[in-house]
Amino acid sequence: MTDQLSLKALHIIMVGEHLRSRLHSEEEPPMIRDRRYHLRMYPCCFVGRDVVDWLIKNGDANSRAGAVQCMDILLENGVIHHVVDDHRFKDEMLFYRFRRDDNTAVKNSDLEVIFKGCDIYYRAKNDDSHLIKSHPCHDFVYRNCFTGCELVDWLKQKNEVPDRTHGVVLGRKLLDQGIIKHVTDEFHFRDENIFYQFMIDKVVNKKMVDALGIVDNKQPGSPRNFRRRNLPPLNTQRSSPVPFAKERPGLDEQFDYERSPDSPVFFPSSGSPRQSPRPVIVREITTRELMDPEGPYVMKNISVKSDAVGFGFVVRGSSPVYVQTVDPNGPGAAAGLKVRMFLKSVNGKDVLYWNHRQVSQEILRGQNIVNLVVMTHFKGVK
């Protein structure tokens, strides 16, 4: 089982796939087509200036600068590229192409699952099967969802899988990669009458500038004003100003997390050291249990950005390391990190067999954003 992509990378890929689907569906005139320049044919490409016009016309950007910013994010993250890789994205008569269209996208199993999930979503939305629809349940209506058994039926009908067992395996992979989710995050994928949703719906219902976190405030007659909002490039390197476990005001418990990443020792308000609270893990969990594809644990991506105090959580244990404490007022809790989650990877490095000292040092290694892949127990999964 491979590590998942970061939530930010997954989101950018889904934005790119949504744009690709829309541009391919344009027919008058076709946006993506074979084009000739200086006696050479460039297949399946689009013109930078034309796409900027199209984004503004369709309300995905308020200004040409905002549209260029959107497309440049896709280029930086390998979704599109200049046909001969000579230019960044420009509002000019230059040819660009989606990497999926010329088969130059990075090859790995995670991306294959993500692309397959996006393809399934668009096929299901455009055919007459009505897979994705509203479902009433106990005086509540879940919109744009489907049941597990309906998806397995659809996959078999469309020859995506040979049998129901393979359908469940694919459904679990889609959920592990963040393409689908249970409507209340309580269950892993099952071939049952349980409701799930495609996460790409969150992208479909947003303007492109909003989906990519760009503030593009240019209105007719106003000066150009755009900037990225909470979405630095994937390769941004920024130093962490403070340790990840310093005391945070407002905690109910009177203790301070040790500054050193070497151990999870706590300091009470009096200043004298004492041992950390009793471990939160009732029994020892093995790495084999965590990674069992039929087990109750599922991978989840969590990105935590430190504030002026730190990341707001403490890790403990070894092979695997788990979350011992989460500050309820800190960025860890805000990002969805919870006690008893097990760490599978930190910033793309597999830490399943590391101890908490090694994991702490990796978390503190010069960045104020840490991308975690955690293993969490799904309620109701046996």
Automatic annotation (TrEMBL):
Single annotated GO MF: guanyl-nucleotide exchange factor activity
PROSITE patterns: DEP, PDZ
Gene3D superfamilies for the chain: 2.30.42.10, Winged helix-like DNA-binding domain superfamily/Winged helix DNA-binding domain
Cited InterPro entries: DEP_dom, mTOR-Rac_regulators, PDZ, PDZ_sf, WH-like_DNA-bd_sf, WH_DNA-bd_sf
Domain (PDZ): residue spans on this chain: 301-378
A single cellular component GO annotation: plasma membrane
Span of the signal peptide: none
One example of a Gene Ontology biological process annotation: intracellular signal transduction
Location of the DEP domain: 26-100, 141-200
SMART domains: DEP (SM00049), PDZ (SM00228)
Disordered: annotated segments: 219-248
PANTHER family per the UniProt record, alphabetical: DEP DOMAIN PROTEIN, PH DOMAIN-CONTAINING PROTEIN
Protein's name in the database: DEP domain-containing mTOR-interacting protein
This protein's encoding gene: Deptor
